[in-house]
Amino acid sequence: xxxxxxxxxxxxxxxxxxxxxxxxxxxxxxxxxxxxxxxxxxxxxxxxxxxxxxxxxxxxxxxxxxxxxxxxxxxxxxxxxxxxxxxxxxxxxxxxxxxxxxxxxxxxxxxxxxxxxxxxxxxxxxxxxxxxxxxxxxxxxxxxxxxxxxxxxxxxxxxxxxxxxxxxxxxxxxxxxxxxxxxxxxxxx
Length: 189
Prior knowledge:
Layout: H1 3-19, H2 26-33, H3 39-43, H4 47-71, H5 78-93, H6 97-112, H7 117-137, H8 143-163, H9 172-183
């Protein structure tokens, strides 16, 4: 990805995450990026192309964040994972709030625009490539299903914190409860 294209997509994420989907226009991205009018439309001819580009950039940025998370998880144990994931969720709901809001806007748009779904599916598959082995390392008996459940909880925690911010946001309690429940085998009781 060229620096200019990345700069435009990062500006588009900020527009989408701070102003909403209706305000995501080529002109708004040009202004946010501090570039001359027409810069965004030169890179992304249509709004659909812009939306697809934003979605691909979101996947790239979030995957990098999850990859950085993985570095802190060797060796993996539940307590360490919960601590690091909790830190990431607080970062996403504070410093990268725009990123999460932009992603959720596009997820909702994908509900009525199926052409956006392949990029979302590809992103989830990339994330599963990292998360499924982690769940295996934590002792999961069904790592693929357990990782999907964990992602669902993460999405719910993010939405809840963004919609109704709590100053003492502590996702670790819910993460620990879920992982303990998922990873406890019937023979362990």
